[in-house]
Design brief:
The complex is a heterodimer of chains A (121) and B (109).
Chain A (H helix, E strand, L loop, with lengths): L2 E5 L2 E3 L5 E8 L8 E6 L5 E7 L6 E3 L7 E6 L4 E6 L8 E10 L4 E6 L3 E5 L2
Parallel strand pairs in A: 2-11
Antiparallel strand pairs in A: 1-3, 3-8, 4-5, 4-9, 5-6, 7-8, 9-10, 9-11
Chain B lengths: L4 E2 L2 E4 L5 E6 L9 E5 L6 E4 L13 E6 L2 E6 L8 E8 L7 E3 L3 E5 L1
Parallel strand pairs in B: 2-10
Antiparallel strand pairs in B: 1-3, 3-7, 4-5, 4-8, 6-7, 8-9, 8-10
The chains are: A mainly beta (121), B mainly beta (109).
Chain lengths: 121, 109
């Protein structure tokens, strides 16, 4: 079964750090780009960051650039998000997602169930 | 960075056809993908590429595109189609940048 399982969320004070993990199974992890997408309570989806299959290409949303770092370990079938200098507005459910792509389209075909991050004092 | 714009809410009578739209400059270069999200659940991909449905998605869901506008059409809407729908595309300003629309709440009357 193709599956993504996030972990590492929790309650953290503003300014502190947190590291999220995403464990992949059921597919050849190092064949695919992977992404983090978040959803604040009652709000829409927001793309956070993405990484190519070999970590050679990485992108970040402006809202997290310079504070968050995405990485992956293909030997461990795992995706990570290091979140530093956390702010209240980073409070959200964080999903990892597997990406399919062609020359003219990109799509997230597999999603995890998410891990909740709450930034509060 | 690019933006994708969706109507916040749309309603449709049971069994009728509804179109949900998404506008943005990046859609001139890339097809949108569409996601359905029900309360308390992760998003589910329903349409990608020119008009492709993942396995298990009913054929009443279809996609189309013209200029800077992508559309998701549900032909013969069912009660279980009531959900939030999001469009998504590559951001035209960067290889590994992506963007979501603000989402459309679909109500089936």
């Amino acid at each position: 079964e193709v599956q993504l399982v996030e972990s590492g969320g929790g309650l953290v004070q503003p300014g502190r750090s947190l590291r999220l993990s995403c464990a992949a199974s059921g597919f050849t992890f190092d064949d695919y780009a992977m992404h983090w997408v978040r959803q604040a309570p009652g709000k829409g989806l927001e793309w956070v960051s993405g990484i190519s299959w070999n970590s050679g290409s990485i992108g970040y949303a402006d809202s997290v650039k310079g504070r968050f770092t995405i990485s992956r370990d293909n030997a461990k079938n795992s995706l990570y998000l290091q979140m530093n200098s956390l702010r209240a507005e980073d409070t959200a459910l964080y999903y990892c997602a597997k990406e399919l792509y062609s020359s003219s389209w990109y799509a997230f075909d597999i999603w995890g169930q998410g891990t909740m991050v709450t930034v509060s004092s | 960075s690019s933006e994708l714009t969706q109507d916040p809410a749309v309603s449709v009578a049971l069994g009728q056809t509804v179109r949900i739209t998404c506008q943005g400059d990046s859609l001139r270069s890339y097809y949108a993908s569409w996601y359905q999200q029900k309360p308390g659940q992760a998003p589910v991909l329903v349409i990608y590429g020119k008009n492709n449905r993942p396995s298990g998605i009913p054929d009443r869901f279809s996609g189309s595109s013209s200029g800077n506008t992508a559309s998701l059409t549900i032909t013969g809407a069912q009660a279980e189609d009531e959900a939030d729908y999001y469009c998504n595309s590559r951001d035209s300003s960067g290889n590994h940048l992506r963007v979501f629309g603000g989402g459309t709440k679909l109500t089936v009357l």
